[in-house]
Amino acid sequence: MRKSIYVDMVADLFHYGHVSYLRQVKEQCDCLIVGVHSDETVQGYKRTPIMTMLERMRVVESCRYVDRVIADAPLHVTTEYLEQNGIEFVACPDNISETNRNLMYGDILDKLLIFKYTNDISTTQIITRLCRIFTNTKADTLKRLINDSSLTYLMEAHSGLSAKIVEKNGFQGIWASGLSISASLGLRDNNEASWTQVLEVVNYMNDASSLPILLDGDTGYGNFNNARRLVKKLDQLGIAGVCIEDKIFPKTNSFIEKAQQLAPISEFCGKIKACVDARGVSQFVIVARTESFIVGLGLEEALERAIAYAEAGADAILVHSKKSTPADIHSFMSVWREAKAKIPVIVVPTTYFTDSEEFESMGVSTVIWANHNMRASTYAMNEVCAQIQKTKSINALERLVTIKDVFELQDEQELAEAEKKYLPLS
Ligand code: SPV
Ligand code: MG
Q1: Which of 44, 46, 22, 47 is nearest to 35 (CA)?
Q2: Which of these, 41, 48, 160, 124, lies nearest to 406 by C-alpha position?
Q3: Residue 318 in contact with residue 349, Cβ under 8 Å?
Q4: Residues 157, 205: contact at Cβ < 8 Å?
Q5: What ligand 1 atom has the least distance to the C-alpha of 181?
Q6: Ligand 1 pocket check for 190: Cβ under 6 Å
Q7: Are 23 and 49 in contact (CB under 8 A)?
Q8: pLDDT at 55
Q9: Residue 85: what pLDDT?
Q10: What local confidence, expressed as pLDDT, does residue 176 receive?
Q11: C-alpha angle 288/291/292, rounded to 5°?
Q12: How do the pLDDT tens digits run along the chain, 426 residues long?
């Protein structure tokens, strides 16, 4: 048994790798002394520590294998330092490079004892995991909203301005509708807008609002490979989630009366799996949408598909219907409950209406008002154009927002304040 062994460490985000290293050392000595590097020292050779030196010291002190803790441990250990602190031997991890070993312990090589360091965990790994999870915090919010017990409403938006209006009116999240984005670009809902064009619009929307956005990703713009690339790019932009439907690219809007075809179940499951794998550890939400009722295949097909999509890893199922009553949704929800499927169900009541209590009693998680801002603005633009064209005047116009209201939505005030702060006084 050695009298005392010294360990120097950063001990940031103290984890079981640290503990098992300290335990091994303690097994070889009566007194385990730990030197904790200062914040400046760590910054100089590694990265800014997450915890301050005092916080790191407190954690190390509370480890039962540690007998004494020294602040401001030097990066370069000298014989004088060992003598001053009554240290007999120095522990050195087996994974240290020769260069670093010479740099840190070059003067006291005869005092070194080598110990095994656990390689399957490190502070850097933990930080990387945290960054991946928390870069897309809106995804986290959307996941919580669709999973909590109360009914969530997503309101349609198709531009930065409409996204701001949705937020101003107190909604919890945004549906970036494929139909509405296409229409606002003057295009049909048949994948005439490319996926990067849609991405550009949704990026503006995401910047304009702090709400989580669920993008209507149609069929994923191609096969599994296109869909998973879409997921990666959306996640990088901080979009909360995407909804992918089981039709064939190029898609046709669900309300267009023409024969529509579904993708084979196995192919669509592969697409969902690829999307799930592509998001990795991110909270990015992947919704699988079945169009079984839309193409007239009925309840059995809808249920089989929904179960398969849940098993493929989807976070929620969107069940669409074009009936004028919620009959399809009622029948689906009653069998879904019995199927004991765990993932939430999202509905899009565009042609049918029922009140919140009814959706809640069915067990629906989320309701999407899918296109009402686009239709409202189309109506309003039509009205105002017709009136100005007819009267050749703007005098009788009513119900317009003022220019000041627009400035407020654009947050002109923030720019005025920033100018005071950043522009030199003239
Ligand atoms: C959309 O908003 O683009 C939708 C919903 O997909 S629907 O138009 O009802 O199919
Ligand atoms: Mg759509």
Answers
A1: 22
A2: 160
A3: no
A4: yes
A5: 3
A6: no
A7: no
A8: 97
A9: 96
A10: 99
A11: 115
A12: 899 999 999 999 999 999 999 999 999 999 999 999 999 999 988 889 999 999 999 999 999 999 999 999 999 999 999 999 999 999 999 989 999 999 999 999 999 999 998 888 999 889 888 877 777 889 999 999 999 999 999 999 999 999 999 999 999 999 999 999 999 999 999 999 999 999 999 999 999 999 999 999 999 999 999 999 999 999 999 999 999 999 999 999 999 999 999 999 999 999 999 999 999 888 999 999 999 999 999 999 999 999 999 999 999 999 999 999 999 999 999 999 888 778 999 999 999 988 999 999 999 999 999 999 999 999 999 999 999 999 999 998 988 999 999 999 999 999 999 999 999 987
Active site residue 120: no
Catalytic residue selected from 8, 12, 189, 328? 189
Angstrom distance (rounded) from CA 330 to CA 189: 28
Report the sign of the C-alpha dihedral through residues 178, 181, 182, 184, in that order: positive
Ligand 1 proximity of 191 Cβ (cutoff 6 Å)? no
Coil/strand/helix, residue 15: coil
- Amino acid making up residue 12: D
Return the best residue to mutate from 158, 175, 177, 319 for the ligand 1 pocket (most ligand atoms within 8 A of CB): 177
- CA dist 240 and 209 (Å) reads 12
In this predicted structure, what is the pLDDT of residue 265?
Answer: 98
Query: How does DSSP classify residue 341?
Result: -
Which of 154, 189, 191 is the pocket-test mutation for ligand 1 (most atoms within 8 Å of CB)? 189
Specify the ligand 1 atom closest to the Cα of 350.
9
Cα separation, 134 vs 423, whole angstroms? 34
CA pair distance 37, 48, nearest whole angstrom: 12
CB 220 within 8 A of CB 247: no
Beta strands in 38-85, from DSSP E residues, in sequence order: 68-70
d(CA 32, CA 3): 9
Is the CB of 253 inside a 6 Å radius of any atom of ligand 1?
Answer: yes
Q: Is 349 exposed, middle or buried (0-12, 13-18, 19+ CB in 10 A)?
A: middle
* Interior angle at CA 212, CA 186 and CA 234, nearest 5: 65
Cα separation of 69 and 32, whole Å?
9
Token pair listed for 186: 């003057």
pLDDT of 204: 98
Residue carrying structure tokens 């009402």: 372
The DSSP annotation for 87-147 comes to --EEEEETT--HHHHHHHHGGGGGGEEEE----S--HHHHHHHHHHHHS-HHHHHHHHHHH
The residue assigned the tokens 């095994």 is: 116
Q: Could you give the CA distance from residue 115 to residue 135 in angstroms, rounded to a whole number? A: 36
